[in-house]
Amino acid sequence: MKNQVKLFLKGVKSYRQAFTFLVKNKLLYFFLFPIAFNFLIYFSGLSVLNDFRLLTTQYLESFLESFGASEDWWILFLNKLFSISIWLLSKVLFFYVFSLFGGYLTIIFLSPVFTYLSEKTASIQKGKTYNFNFSQFVNDIFRAILISVRNILLQLSMVFALFLIGFIPVIGWGISIFGNLLIVSYFYGFSFLDYTNERNQLSIKESVKIVRRKKGLAIGLGLVFYLCFFIPLLGGVISSFLAIISVVAATISLEETSDN
């Protein structure tokens, strides 16, 4: 338990070390990728939601017109109120869903960047050159996606169990909230750590064993990343930038604790 606490603190503190590493080694250009990612996600996502709002509004207009007197003030007022309500609800729903799965969307869509960044970090840290292999690079990307899907499914099943526990007054509430925080943080941390495990040619099964043994490190890394999603409105945007630091932090911290 004491060792897990040390690993947890190591995971949290490694973010500062990782950012210094990025600056020192002139790797800040990697932050350009989250900019492109956010542009794609938000503009495409909001565009879809806007189309949905227009379709539902048009449907309501057609529905009200079937009763006649479509120009009555109360009909116009009701239609406007419904349009605004749909607009607000769609935006809230979008940000809520993104807060739940935005981290994994970031990991999946930017997995090619994270795979290369982790390798680049290890290369600088260990003074070792890794020969680029395109087929292996593609395999690494698919593995990162597979790990993300695996973690999402496991996380959802555990979170659902905690949701049921949350119906128990007082004690259940505490267990549900605290347990959810630990579980989500662990699986995010797992995803970041696996880039190093994969590069070391470990199977997914072997990677699971290592991360379980160093669960404190995974939780510490994942917690910092997960907490970003609690920042109103900008949480998803900030987390995509923080993910760059998370990959570096996970690579450095796992290499430094490889003998533990």
Notes on the protein architecture:
The structure is a single chain. Helices cover 83% and strands 0% of the residues. The mean pLDDT is 81. The protein has 260 residues and is mainly α.
Give the SSE layout.
Layout: H1 2-24, H2 32-65, H3 73-109, H4 111-126, H5 134-165, H6 171-199, H7 204-213, H8 215-227, H9 235-256
Helix pairs in contact: 1-8, 1-9, 2-3, 2-9, 3-5, 3-9, 4-5, 4-9, 5-6, 6-7, 6-8, 6-9, 7-8, 8-9
Short characterization:
This protein has one domain. 83% of the residues lie in helices and 0% in strands.
Instruction: From the alpha carbons, calculate the radius of gyration and give it in angstroms.
Output: 22 Å
- Mean model confidence by pLDDT: 81
**How far do the termini sit from each other?**
13 Å
Largest sheet: none
Q: Which bin fits the share of residues in helices?
A: over 70%
The proportion of strand residues reads under 5%
Taken from the alpha-carbon principal axes, the silhouette is globular
Query: What's the total helix number?
Result: 9
H and E order: HHHHHHHHH
User: Strand pairing plus helix content: what structural class?
Assistant: mainly alpha
Low-confidence stretches: none
Oligomer: single chain
Q: Any idea how many domains?
A: 1
Number of strands: 0
